[in-house]
Amino acid sequence: MSRSYVLGVAAAVFATFSWALNFLSPYMMGALGPIDFITLRFIVSGGIGLVMLRIYWPGDTVLSRRSILSAGLLGVLGYAVYIGCIMGSVLNGGAIIAPAFLSATPVIIAVAGNMIERTTTWSSLAVPIMLAVCGLVAANYGTLVGVLDNDLTSYLAAVSYAVGAVLTWLMFSILNQKMLAKIPRVHAGLWTGLMMVGAGLSVVVFVPFGLVLDMYTYPHLDLHLGNTLPVLAAAAALACVASVGGAWAWNFASQRLPMALSGQLISVETIFAVAFGLIAEQRLPTGLEVLGIVGLLAGASIAVRVMAQGNREGVKVQA
């Protein structure tokens, strides 16, 4: 393997590790609400993004206005919106549901890609699809049973947020890889800075609307140094590592790895996310949860391998 390839894999794994820290957000926001915490976090991220633009902006820029705007919108989609969906799922359904759905992303990509352009037979995708479905059922079974006797609304909200996170991630990863392929000379630090500024501006613009709609918690709290400093520190830490660090590492990896491999590596986030979530909940996974996650990861791995083989052979399968 080339040095560039190895560095790309290492960067992608670091990105998945840093993004998995997002699953700790609901446990770190103290008395604040999720909208408050996201706003704090991305104001910090936007500030760091401005510093990065100051450092990496070239005298003769390689970016058009359209590319700059696209980078900012990708930051909104892949960070502010995505993390909002993650927090919503964890708050409503606990540590397992969102990672379980995210781990099925490579299978979803394989199915969608084969529907658009048949590069492999559906029978070759039958095993990963079956593993993904069974894995989701197993991983969600305990949570579903726990809410059937109570209010099903929270569980359905958690699933809805998880599906939103999957769709957001799919759109972000595909669009980001395509944009970087068109501008290979752009520095990963510059592209990351533009993303963070976009995400930061989005939360600032949202503040007046959130206040009018009473979506913020802080106006109703008795804020003082004791209950705000830990939350500010947590938001700043996540902004530095999970937002800026993760974005930089993923952009770096996206410039060096094919999408098939990066799609498989995103499954690693599931392992980190489940581990962090269970640590925060101070419990061990149930047998069904372990079985479900293993099934999902196996299905993702097989799906990526099948699609990669079909793309290498370059054969279009007749319907």
From TrEMBL:
InterPro entries reported in the protein's UniProt record: EamA_dom
Domain (EamA): residue spans on this chain: 7-137
Keywords: Membrane, Transmembrane, Transmembrane helix
Record's protein name: EamA domain-containing protein
Pfam families: EamA (PF00892)
Transmembrane segments: 38-57, 69-90, 96-113, 125-148, 154-176, 188-211, 231-250, 257-280, 286-308
